[in-house]
Amino acid sequence: MSEIDLTDSHLREHKIDGVLAYDGDFLQVQKDRITLPDGKQATREYIRHPGAVVIIPLFDDGTVLMERQFRYPLDRVFIEFPAGKIDPGEDKLICAQRELKEETGYTAQSWRHVCTIHNAIAYADEHLEIYLAQGLTAGEARLDEEEFLETFVATQSELLDWVREGKITDVKTVIGTFWLEKILKQQW
């Protein structure tokens, strides 16, 4: 096996300068001029995103609370775990608790950080913090003014089937489903 240069200096790109190419209400697009590892210059355009949380709301019987929501860019309804954007300066766990309550009405007694994922590394700096929520108690949802969704309960085997069949294609939900499988089998 060959030696790996753990300094990554032979792979690193370095920013020379950059401009904000687009400044929206939710996203920004950055355009940077960079130096490549071989000394040549190139440009990198990427979406700046504040990050988000994903919640796996697990009931005592092993079922999970899911959502169905229309997603405009792909013009269809998706099956998803509850999720939401982290507000500036907001603690990730506080955001997860807020989003679960707002979108579903549920609160949880127990919270566990599962992992961080980067879902679009080639063109965005977005990170998603996945949490497991247990000890669920029902309450009243408080959806944002422009938010419309429905909730339902599913089994882990249904989720796995839907991933296999292509009914679930949302990356955070696919990864959350695989984590859920490991969690329920107490393998991770």
UniProtKB/TrEMBL annotation:
Share an example GO biological-process annotation for this protein. Answer: ribose phosphate metabolic process
The reaction(s) annotated as catalysed by this protein in its Swiss-Prot or TrEMBL entry are:
GDP-alpha-D-mannose + H2O = alpha-D-mannose 1-phosphate + GMP + 2 H(+)
Which keywords appear in this protein's UniProt record, sorted alphabetically? Hydrolase
Q: Name one Pfam family in it.
A: NUDIX
Annotated protein name in UniProt: GDP-mannose pyrophosphatase
Which GO-annotated molecular functions does the record name? hydrolase activity
Native species: Undibacterium jejuense
- List cellular component terms (GO): cytosol
Similarity comment: Belongs to the Nudix hydrolase family. NudK subfamily.
Q: Which residues form the signal peptide?
A: none
Nudix hydrolase domain residues are: 45-176
